[in-house]
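User: I'm preparing a small set of examples for a lab meeting where we compare how different chains pack in three dimensions. I only have the primary sequence for this one, and I'd like the structure in token form so I can line it up with the others. Please keep the answer compact; I'll paste it straight into my notes.
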Amino acid sequence: MAVVALLWLASLVWGLGGPRATQAMPGPGLDDLDLELFRSTYLPAAVSPETLAENERSVEEQLVSLRLLDPAADPTALGILLLGYDPSAWLPGAYVQFVRYEGDDEGSSVQDHEELRGNLIDQLDALERLLPANIHTAILELGGLRQRDAPDYPLPALRELVVNALMHRNYETSNAPVRILWFANRVEITSPGGPYGAVTAENFDKRNDYRNPALAAAMKDLGFVNRFGRGISLVRSTLAVNGNQPAEFQIEPTYWGVVVRAAA
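Assistant: Understood. Below is the structure token output for the 264-residue chain.
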């Protein structure tokens, strides 16, 4: 089944917001979706309280209306990514690889590592735990009784970069995960999928476009993104305020990466 799903996925040309993104994937069924997560988290975020109070539709009908199931009650790619117990079983690259190294290169000892293979909601919840847990915060003495926290990385900048890596990545033809490599002196975040649509390597900080618009809309409903197109500006400003060097972006036709160096 996974091979059939991969062949189906490789045929997509419009991303996870195009006409096929909300069509059924071959293989997974309703049992592959976390329906409790849908009821407790996604549905209240995507539908207003007034509509929910008046809504007498079944769970399956609600899933269909939100394009997470097709009319025949088979999960769509969007449904698998947002609610699947293990999306990577059907979309092989749909996971996050996190590695914390003791030194400054991949030859140094590994202090911690995790593969986040749950759905995007679970992945982002796990990253809300992992990112702050790995930030080291010193206390600067400012004179007299005054002190100031001095983290080696500003959490808002790392969070923005990681969320964008998940939202804009190529889920169609790449089996590579989003990678977060945390070294002693820097954090490297890489994501399969280069510039898309109106975005180029030259204007990525001034233009905004969506490879996966249906996914972006769902992540906005869930409160993970705002879709104001100010992510790069936020990253740059928070790094500057925290005393970090500017982020180093690496943008290629099929690849996106960024290096954030620790504050001195």
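A couple of notes for your slides: The chain has two domains: 2-89, 96-261. The beta strands are 96-101, 110-116, 137-143, 146-151, 178-182, 186-192, 248-252, 255-261.

User: Perfect, thanks.
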